[in-house]
Design brief:
6-stranded antiparallel β-sheet, 21 strands, disordered N terminus, single chain, alpha+beta, 30% helix
Length: 459
């Protein structure tokens, strides 16, 4: 009897020494990973579109997929199950839905549930207090089902200036209130004593630069390939599963080759341009506005010609290409510089804002990348995502691009200041080309093309 009491006291002492519940949970995970004969576990990821990895990874792995390979292959737990139960647009209210929770979590009998939520609660019409209460109830429910809970804060996001649609206004609301909601996640983690992966703190420190943040995101809110890898690494570190020797933790995400750095703007100052054009060359100058709402600059016989696509061919003078350069088979990166000028930026036709549309399609190493940008006062959109331009008024401004087709990314500057590093989201099968215009017959272009330079690296 005395021996039994001693054993009980030892067990109680060990439990007390183990510390908070979060430390006990981490110790359980470590013990599981270190015991090859332990029964298989089920790990469930539950949350919104960031957890789902929806749309913005561009075919690269999302953070739960990186986690799954680290666990099942590198850490030799092939019988463990990793289930992604993330759903785009979800809030804590949907995650607490009995029907949904029973199907996507409880029926799987998980050993660990990894939660990331809050981005959509901000614009759900409910209060921060409601988010705090729902998140606490969700943690209690998972724990009540016998699973370890791991809470995650979300990534940081880009700010949208002067939003002009309901969709963009919600983006701005998220940007302004996200710090408060992520602090609530920290509060719940502390109160419920759960493991916490603080992605928001990591991104705030390491992606404070707009250019770095843009390279981690797939668009304004959602992480891209690099961002998902950052989230995976923070999760693995929190669970003591990280190793600098791990291929999952060190492989360059998003197709960028290891060691490839963003192109320095200094290269533009040193560039030898293959194609140079200015309004003084006679094409199309100040006359090319609403009179010619769309056009295509095409390459033929080493020369550049503008065809008017809305009114049939309009024969402008041809631009000679230096050394018969081509945009086919070039070496990455391709440099492009456009000097533009907004004219009457506040005017609209049929209630639509004036805008200017351009595409640049380049072939390199057997791939064709097409950069598409729609430029309007204060913002641009297209395959590079929504980025903000400085308030240009009616003055000239210069957009500069370093397009790395092989890596699938583009660095963008405005008047020499970085706007960001963006994944090229569309790989095109269209012929090599340049397009200019306003993209519409009903909206007159208000951006005049003052000069165009392209360096293909093929001289």
């Amino acid at each position: 009897m005395r021996n039994i009491l001693i054993a009980i006291c030892c067990i109680m002492t060990l439990s007390i020494a183990a510390g908070p519940l979060a430390d006990i949970d981490r110790a359980k995970i470590t013990a599981h990973l270190g015991n090859s004969s332990d029964r298989p576990w089920t790990w469930v990821f539950y949350g919104d579109s960031i957890t789902q990895g929806a749309a913005h990874t561009h075919g690269w792995r999302s953070f739960q997929e990186i986690f799954a390979e680290r666990l099942r292959h590198e850490l030799k737990r092939p019988m463990d199950r990793v289930v992604n139960s993330g759903n785009s647009g979800q809030t804590t209210r949907e995650l607490l839905s009995e029907k949904q929770y029973d199907w996507q979590v409880r029926s799987l009998k998980p050993d660990v549930v990894i939660l990331m939520v809050g981005m959509n609660d901000i614009v759900s019409g409910r209060t921060p207090d409601a988010f705090r209460e729902n998140l606490g109830v969700l943690v209690d429910r998972v724990r009540g089902d016998g699973a370890i809970v791991v809470l995650q804060t979300s990534n940081t996001i880009q700010k949208v200036e002067n939003p002009n649609t309901d969709y963009l206004k919600k983006y701005l609301i998220r940007y302004e209130q996200l710090p408060q909601y992520m602090e609530i996640v920290r509060e719940v983690a502390a109160k419920k004593d759960t493991l916490l992966v603080d992605n928001f703190a990591h991104w705030s420190n390491q992606a404070a630069s707009p250019e770095v943040l843009a390279s981690w995101l797939g668009e304004t809110i959602h992480p891209g390939p690099r961002g998902h890898q950052e989230i995976a690494i923070q999760l693995l570190k929190t669970l003591d599963m990280y190793s600098p020797q791990s291929r999952c933790c060190t492989l360059a995400a998003g197709g960028v080759k290891a060691g490839t750095a963003p192109v320095d703007f200094q290269r533009f100052k040193e560039a030898v341009w293959n194609i140079e054009y200015s309004a003084a060359d006679g094409l199309p100058g100040t006359g090319w506005k609403s009179d010619y709402p769309a056009g295509c600059l095409t390459l033929a016989d080493g020369r550049l010609r503008l065809d008017n696509t809305s009114e049939g061919r309009h024969e402008y003078p041809l631009i000679s290409l230096l050394d018969n350069a081509s945009l086919k088979g070039v070496k990455s990166p391709v440099l492009a510089e456009l000097k533009l000028c907004f004219v009457e930026p506040q005017k609209t036709i049929e209630g639509k804002p004036y805008r200017f549309f351009w595409t640049l399609s380049v072939e390199s190493e057997g791939r064709i990348a097409e950069v598409i940008m729609q430029i309007a006062p204060g913002q641009t959109s297209g395959t590079l995502g929504n980025i903000r331009l400085p308030d240009t008024g009616d003055r000239e401004f210069t957009l500069s691009f370093a397009i790395d087709v092989a890596a699938g990314v583009a660095n963008v500057w405005c008047d020499g200041s970085p706007l960001g590093r963006f994944p090229i989201k569309n790989l095109s099968d269209k012929p090599v080309r340049l397009n200019f215009g306003d993209g519409s017959k009903t909206v007159g272009g208000i951006v005049e093309l003052r000069s165009l330079k392209i360096s293909t690296g093929s001289r």
